[in-house]
């Protein structure tokens, strides 16, 4: 499909012969794979399914979900802190 050279070497994105998977290669090392078609050959109904580092339910997937959850909690804390500061400012003005 495509090949790009960078400081780190040549990176290639290839589709396997039956068109069901796409691979990211750096030299002879596979750094990524994703399913782009179902076993019967039809396109997947959603985004491609990651199969290597970022596969659903894997450790990196869990870390991403935890970070997203923590970010939501941070937003809630930040909102509380803002309300706290506003109440202190208004009481200081009295």
Protein model, in words:
It is a single chain. This protein has 94 residues and is of the alpha+beta class. It has one domain (2-93). It contains one helix and five strands; from the N terminus they run E-E-E-E-E-H. The protein has one helix spanning 59-93; strands spanning 2-6, 9-15, 21-26, 29-35, 49-50. A five-stranded antiparallel β-sheet has the order 1-2-3-4-5, with no helix packed on it. The termini are far apart. The mean pLDDT is 80.
Number of domains: 1
> Strand-and-helix sequence, N→C?
EEEEEH
Extract low-pLDDT stretches.
Answer: none
Question: Tally the helices: what do you get?
Answer: 1
How many whole angstroms does the radius of gyration measure? 23 Å
Please tell me the overall pLDDT.
Answer: 80
Distance between the termini: 69 Å
The order of strands across the largest sheet is 1-2-3-4-5
What global shape is seen? Answer: flat
How much helical structure, as a percent, in the residues? 25-40%
Structural class: alpha+beta
- How many strand units? 5
How large a portion of the residues is in β-strands, by DSSP E? 25-35%
Q: How can the largest sheet be summarized?
A: 5 strands, antiparallel
Topology:
Blueprint: E1 2-6, E2 9-15, E3 21-26, E4 29-35, E5 49-50, H1 59-93
Antiparallel strand pairs: 1-2, 2-3, 3-4, 4-5
Short description:
With about 90 residues, this protein is of the alpha+beta class. It has one domain (about 1-94). The chain contains one helix and five strands.
């Amino acid at each position: 499909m495509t090949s790009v050279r960078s400081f780190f070497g040549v990176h290639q994105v290839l589709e396997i012969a039956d068109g069901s998977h796409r691979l990211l290669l750096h030299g002879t090392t596979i750094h990524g794979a994703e399913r782009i078609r179902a076993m019967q050959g039809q396109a997947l109904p959603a985004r491609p399914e990651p199969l290597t580092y970022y596969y659903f339910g894997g450790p990196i997937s869990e870390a991403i979900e935890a970070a997203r959850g923590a970010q939501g909690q941070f937003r809630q804390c930040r909102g509380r802190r803002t309300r706290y500061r506003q109440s202190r400012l208004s009481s200081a003005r009295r």
